[in-house]
Specification:
Layout (H helix, E strand, L loop, with lengths): L1 E8 L2 H11 L3 E14 L9 E8 L8 E13 L2 E11 L1 H9 L10 H10 L6 E16 L2 E10 L2 E9 L3 H14 L5 E2 L4 H7 L6
Antiparallel strand pairs: 1-5, 1-8, 1-9, 2-3, 2-6, 3-4, 4-5, 6-7, 7-8
Organism: Spinacia oleracea
Protein name: Triphosphate tunnel metalloenzyme 3
GO molecular function: pyrophosphatase activity
Length: about 210
């Protein structure tokens, strides 16, 4: 079970303010390309599941890292997300091949992709690519927390968000909210996952 605090920043100015405040704690910046898949008959989404391939690098065609992720039964309440998640690194070349031909999911030896095939009953010729979006993520180590500050680029708008995975989400949320308030940075609790926003094709109201 992945448990994360998710707080939304209203605009680029708030995102820039937070990035400036946290700049002494920056550890790395990731350029992520997220691509999603389902069965042709919505076998995954009908059971509240999604398969994602995430490429790390400014260009997915030259990315040297790819992570497959199966997520299911996501719940997002009061800025805390809980979701069943299974992740596995795969060869980026295989990931690019799957993007070009999603039916390769049906024959892959990857553990996560086997789960998709076996647990959701998608027939070998029935996979579809749903598309995806780019995310620029700053990763900060702050007061024992790993904060991920995201700029998510959809083709219909840009989302700004701060995420923090924690076994004590309420405590982590309180610490992050205090940081934001002390620095006059506006925020709200996230109401939808990035994937849900991508599928809705519009940013949720603040």
């Amino acid at each position: 079970m992945e448990v994360e605090v998710k707080l939304r920043l209203p605009d680029s100015a708030a995102h820039q303010s937070l990035s400036t405040v946290l700049s002494p704690f920056l550890r790395r910046t990731h350029f992520q390309h997220n691509v999603f898949f389902d069965g042709a008959a919505s076998e995954l989404s009908s059971r509240r599941a999604v398969l994602r391939l995430r490429f790390y690098g400014e260009d997915p065609e030259t990315a040297e890292r790819c992570v497959s992720s199966l997520k299911a039964k996501a719940v997002l309440v009061n800025g805390v997300s809980r979701v069943e998640e299974d992740e596995e690194e795969i060869d980026p070349f295989l990931g690019r091949e799957i993007c070009a031909n999603p039916n390769l999911i049906g024959s892959s030896e990857s553990r996560v992709l086997k789960r998709v095939r076996e647990e959701f009953g998608v027939k070998e010729s029935g996979y579809v690519c749903l598309g995806g979006f780019k995310n620029i993520r700053g990763v900060y180590e702050w007061k024992g927390l790993e904060l991920e500050v995201d700029e998510t680029l959809f083709d219909f708008g840009t989302l700004y968000e701060i995420e923090c995975e924690s076994s004590e989400p309420e405590k982590a949320k309180e610490m992050i909210e205090e940081l934001l308030k002390d620095n006059g940075i506006p925020y709200s609790c996230s109401k939808m996952s990035k994937f849900a926003i991508f599928r809705a094709r519009e940013l949720p109201l603040l």
